[in-house]
Amino acid sequence: MNMTKTLLQKDNFYKTSDFALAVVLSLSFPIYEIDKENPRRAYFVFEQTKELDEMVDSYYRDDLKISPMAFFNQTRALKARLYDR
Description:
alpha+beta; single chain; globular; 3 helices; 42% helix; four-stranded antiparallel sheet
């Protein structure tokens, strides 16, 4: 796992700046918060569960099958949320 892009929080939240991972996770799990405190990098925060951890592991093992259209549409939706003022 690339820990420079993905951070585990101690308070039951999973935080990542990896945009593609955030898109994949947000297809199945709600985004708890988008942390834009750092102006150079946004972090997507999810509630950490066993299922989320399994999906993250599958993502890094390249074991996921995701509809390209769903990925594209979710990418647009996340970018809209990210750049929303």
